[in-house]
Amino acid sequence: MEHDGTVLDVDEDDIEKANPPSYDRSEDLASLLYLNESSVMHCLRQRYGGNLIHTYAGPNMVVINPLSMPSMYSEKVMNMFKGCRREDSAPHIYSVAQSAYRNLLTTRQDQSIVLLGRSGSGKTTNCQHLVQYLVCIAGSTGKIFSAEKWQAVYTILEAFGSSSTTINTNASHFSHVVSLDFDQAGQVASASIQTMLLEKLRVSRRPEGESTFNVFYYMMVGADSSLRTELHFNHLAENSAFGILPQSKPEDKQRSLQQFTKLQAAMKVLGISSEEQKALWLILGAIYHLGAAGATKDGDEVGRRQFARHEWAQKAAYLLGCTLEELSSSIFKHQAKGLQHSTSFRGPPDEASQGDGLGPKVTALECLEAMASGLYSELFTLVISLINRALKSSQHSLCSLLIVDTPGFQNPRLAHQQRGATFEELCHNYTQERLQTLFHERTFVKELERYKEENIELALDDIESNTSLSVAVIDQASTQATLVRTLARTDEARGLLWLMEEEAVQPGGSEETMLERLFSYYGSAQGENKGANLLLRGEKPHLFLLGHSHGTNWVEYNTQGWLNHAKHNPAAQNAATLLQDSQKKNISALFMGRASGATVLSGSIAGLEGSSQLALRRATSMRKTFTTGVAAVKKKSLCIQVKLQVDALIDMVRRSKVHFVHCLLPKVEAVGGGDYRMAHGESPDSGLMTLDVSLLRAQLRGSKLLDALRIYRQGYPDHMVFSEFRRRFDVLAPHLTKKYGRHYIVTDEKRAVEELLESLELEKSNYHMGLSRVFFRAGILSRLEEQRDFQTRRNISLFQAACRGYLARQAFKKRKIQDLAIRCIQKNIKKNRGVKDWPWWKLFTTVRPLIEVQLTEEQIRGKDEEIQQLKQKLEKVEKERNELRLNSDRLESRITELSAELADERNTGESASQLLETETSERLRLEKDMKDLQVKFDSMKKEMESMEMEVMEARLIRASELSGEVEDDETGGEWRLKYERAIREIEFTKKRLQQELDDKLEVEQQNKRQLERRISDLEADYEESQRNIQQLKKKAQRLTAELQDTKLHLEGQQSRNHDLEKKQRKFDSELSAAQDEVQRERSLREKLAREKDVLTGEVFGLRQQLEDKDLEACAVNLKLEQLEAEVQDLNSQESKDEASLAKVKKQLRDLEAKVKDQEEELDEQAGTIQMLEQGKLRLEMEMERLRQTHSKEIESKDEEVEEIRQSCSKKLKQMEVQLEEEYDEKQKVLKEKRELESNFLSVQDQVRGGDIEVEKRLRKDLKRTKALLADAQIMLDHIKNNAPSKREIAQLKNQLEESEFTCAAAVKARKSMEVEIEDLHVQMEDISKTKQALEEQLSRLQREKNDLQSRMEEDQEDFNELMKKHKAAVAQSAQNLAQISDLQAQLEDALKEKQEIQEKMQALQSQMEFQEQSMVEKFLVSRQEAKCRELETKLEFEKTQVKRLESHLARLKENLEKLTEERDQRSSSEIREKEQNKRLQRQIRDIKEEMAELAKKEAEASRKKHELEMDIESLEAANQSLQADLKLAFKRIGDLQAAIEDEMESDDNEDLINSLQDMVTKYQKRKNKIQGDSNTDSEVEDHVEGVKSWLSKNKGSTKNLSDDGSLKSFSPPSQRRYLFDRSDEEEEEEEKEEGGASLHYPRYRYNTNVKGRDGEDKPYETAS
């Protein structure tokens, strides 16, 4: 040990495996990794230290009674457990109630909850919580049963049935069953309470230091002045024969006053009237006054029994409503029929008393006590009837739920009382033993039988198959039950209750004789100990020890006065008659009304009234228990009634599905309530040290919880019939549902279930197929239920969706019909409006109602008459139905009563026939014995006659000798000498024989001593071998348990591996799907490559077309040359006309310029095509790069997946974590794949869009080229025709307007883009600030995390050191325990040696006396005395050594407690640090997520910013190109203006000037609307000013146009760089309008190639 350096040796067999720290507070003991006693104790201590008093123990519940009332029983907590499954809820007493209620609703089977445990372990409190939860959650129709009403019920039961004892401050002294009946909807329909085994003698007699029932103290303190006057409580007696004295402490009086007020309020809630309450107080007051009256001591005469104080007896008689003489006669003066024993089994209850010889034996005080106990028994039965009256209901009920609460195990030695247990405590312990037997039967016997029936092999050798033998000691009946009370004792083994009943009627029967017979049947043989037998003798003759709970709870019973319990006292029976004949109407009315109904069964079970079907069924079941077989005759026996009551309780519970709750007592002081702890300053949450480990260990061993948990873990606790399992879980396998259909029965259910289980992919070790049902391991069925609930919710959601779709379609159809109807109504209203003023229609509408009035009135009268007839019929039918219902109810109750009576009569007849047969056999036996005796008598008579003859002959001889003495005097001397010599010889022979006898005796004694020594050695060897056998058995059990735990752990690992394999298969399927997607992507890539080849072919075709266009251009040039030649010819022909020649030259120059422009445009188109090819090549390269990166990423992911699969195959234990990582990586891969797919599709769209745009652009160029050629041809034709070009002017006007609009739109777009860019800058600044703040917060949290990690490491080091200390302390404690066990063994050896020495001393003393009597030498005696003194000194030395070791043991226990406390504090601090660390990690994770979101937002904002910048650049390029086109347009306008000045006529000149004037005004208006940039529009303004000046000049001189006023800045038409995309319709319109005088402006679409953000050309279109 670390604290003192000692070394503690611990036996290897005493060491058990410990569970990991994560199992310290496991909610279910069955889930522990290693299931052993120490692990269970440790888990319970840890949970109890954390105020977790509830723990699952497989299907059962373990509750450790807390020292203080925790706040875990509120309505909020109830709602938390409402509707939950057991697997989803924490351990709580409410979860047991919820589980039972859920099973009741699903299976429609009766349920019961049985509470087991010792007195003071909290069974009654848990029963109250169970009832309150069920009433609160289930509810009731009309809210009949409220929590307030049930609280009132338990307030009354606590007052009338509980009292304070040395073990428990509020101990129950009766057993009761709460029956809750539920209807079809799951609500509480009715309720009732049945009580039994009431300690009615506690009113008059009880152990020292204990009190009577609480209601007496409440009434004496809480009664008001009028009630005190009426009860004569103004002056209370100073002493009482019953010990009922008023309380002396003020705090007790205050508490009693509050409780009495609460009791009166509870009675008011239950509808107990004031008169009924008054009747109860009167009876209680009468009992008190009877105790104050007392009784005289009996004298020699029988009739002198009377009251000691008649004035108090007079008060009692007044309160009971009778005279003093009647009261005295009922108590002391018994009827003759009550004093004689009745042998008739059919006699009435009054004749069934067993008081033969009762008069002289029963004292006056016993008669008085019997009357008081009888009165209180009747009063308690009345209270139960009143409670059931308030709880009953006439509603129909379907099934019931029973809650069984009985007093726990009573053991006075547990409270350090030096007294024996009473008969009432024996009855309560017997009830608990029977309930423990039921638990053993349901947990072990039924399960093993079911496995055997279903051919399931399960190795459970270490589990005991039989129950405790203490039940047999109490109630075992003989094989042929004694139906008649005979005086002959038989040797057949019977229990204590039967022996008491037999000894009570024996003339010389006593408790000592009863005990001797009991020990002869069940006592231990010589040399046996407690472990071999459960019945031992006590230190005194009237004491005996009985080992309850499989020998873990030894109770010492005192049998003094027990036979009085088996004797009927007429005073107790006269109590009911006295109350029924009372002169007080409120008392007599209550008891006369109760006497008419069967509310009490054979004077034992109360609360059987009830009108519901389930209540009648329960009453019939209990009556059957009391009227079957032996019970039909023995049911009047007071002792056998105890067994019959418990039999009825067990039979009622056995018919239902039982849920067990084991209530454990933490320590002896805990049961005394909270006062003990508060007096010593102990806090309510004092931790683990509030548990008494030895007491808790004894309770666990007695309840066999470990064995139950072991069979629960190793076996198959959940099972279902094949058909039920298939119908319930086939929703999980839809393909099997389609295969078998929804048939209720399948031919081969087992095969269908096997297929279902295979489809569910369950591990083989998790289920087992029986002959008729399928069995599951613990937890498997609940997992299947969760899957079923999930699938059911999904199916219901789909069904709801289908229903909603159908309803929506129906509603739509209805709307269509309504629409049609509305249209019809509208049509009719229109028609009505058309004919409403028509006179004939008015006449028709006026006359038509008058015609139908008469018919309508007649129909109404007929209908009214029919309604009245139907009403009369309905009332008649209702009346008949009510009458029939009443008759049926009455007949059902009558049938039930008759069936019960018939069963009673049948059982009575069977008992009578058995009795008759027994009497016949007895009579035959007696006749045979009589004949034998007669033969013996005759033989004896003959022998007597022969002996008389011999005596007569001897007398005659003697007379003859006397007559001959005188004659033979001389001869007589000789005879005398011979006689004396013979006497001396005889004396010598006697001495010789005596000496030989002494020698032989001494030899025999020596042999005896040798044999005794040998026997003692053999006994010691036998005991040693027995101890070795027990140790080996214990070791074998421990090893078996560890082996089973290992097997279960292995099965768990196998199931886990199975789940991992399922996940692996799922992952492989997902991986194959991803690979399929990759294959599809590759195929798509190949398809795109093929499309690319097709597009390349199309580009090649476009190039061919371009070459063709070049050839056409060459042809045009040739044509131009021809035209030049023609012009030369014309020049030669018209050489005289110089003006015309100059004009033609100018036109030629224009045409040449035009051709040059076309050539330049062709060059630009070739450059554009080359740029497009370069962009296409760049896009192809980008696609190839993306394809390569994507393939590399896919290959890297494939390699990662392969590595993950290899690591999965290598490391099975880390499979779950790796699978999660792989899943995350797969999600990333899929995300990247989707992004690459989207990028690929966008690139593909861009490529396609680019190719299409190239094609469109080429086509537009082709059209433009054609238009230019057409324009040139038109110009040439115009030159030939010498006509001015008006259409050219119109085109220029339109082009000018379109340029203006384009410029304005570009400026506006640029401004909006600038605004958006500013907003984006602001957003970027905000995002950067937020990011900076989050980074600072993240760094701060990281620093805190580092600090916490350092602190955790320090705490971990401290904890490791503490754990080392704790381990050393545990080792030391184990060493101390081993030393203690050794010392205890030494103490036992010393005690045994002491006992042997005492026996030897007794033997030596007897030998000394014998030797003294036979005059043996004195020195042997002195030697033996010296030996005795030496042994006494050894004994004193051993006693001192034992005391020293006990003090050392106490010091070791204190050290162990201190070390455990320090370890608990360290563990709690570590848990707090871990929780804080987890909280900080969650905060860091949240901040990281926020950072990632902000980073995403920042990236999105930067992307939008980049896009907007690209848009701005494209718009600026477009604006520049538009301005350049506008400049070219103005140049062309100038050239056209110059041409116009030469050729325009006056009329046309005016029109042209007007049109130009309009165009300028429009431009001025648009300029005013759109505020453009001065720098960019200055040149345009110059051109506009030039046009204005030119117009002003033309207004001054309309006919003479000077060359100086022309706009020289204008360029010829051949230099235009705009794209005309006119439709064919517009061209046709222009051709039609060429001949007209007016000037029209056709619509053109102006296309400009704008550079987008992706580098492609997009058409920017405007229309004017």
In short:
The chain is mainly α.
Describe how the helices and strands are arranged.
Layout (H helix, E strand, L loop, with lengths): L36 H13 L4 E4 L2 E5 L10 H7 L11 H15 L3 E7 L5 H16 L8 H15 E2 L7 E2 L2 E8 L5 E9 L17 H9 L2 H7 L18 H20 L4 H20 L16 H11 L3 H9 L3 H4 L18 H4 L2 H28 L7 E7 L17 H31 L16 H6 L20 H8 L7 H12 L12 E3 L5 E6 L4 E6 L11 H11 L4 H12 L3 E2 L3 E2 L6 H14 L4 H4 L3 H17 L2 E8 L9 H6 L13 H11 L1 H10 L3 E4 H8 L4 H7 L8 H12 L6 E3 L3 E4 L3 H56 L3 H125 L5 H165 L4 H73 L4 H67 L4 H128 L4 H126 L2 H24 L4 H23 L27 H10 L11 E7 L5 E7 L1
Parallel strand pairs: 2-14, 3-8, 3-14
Antiparallel strand pairs: 1-2, 4-5, 6-7, 6-8, 9-10, 10-11, 12-13, 15-17, 16-17, 18-19
Characterization of this structure:
By secondary structure, the protein is mostly helical. Helices cover 69% and strands 6% of the residues. It is built from 39 helices and 19 strands. The strands form six sheets. Strands 1-2-14-3-8-6-7 form a seven-stranded mixed sheet, sandwiched between helices. A hairpin with a 3-residue loop joins strand 16 and strand 17. The radius of gyration is 58 Å and the shape is elongated. The relative contact order is 0.05.
Q: What key phrases describe this protein's structure?
A:
1664 residues; mainly alpha; 7-stranded mixed β-sheet; 3-stranded antiparallel β-sheet; 69% helix; 6% strand; elongated; disordered C terminus
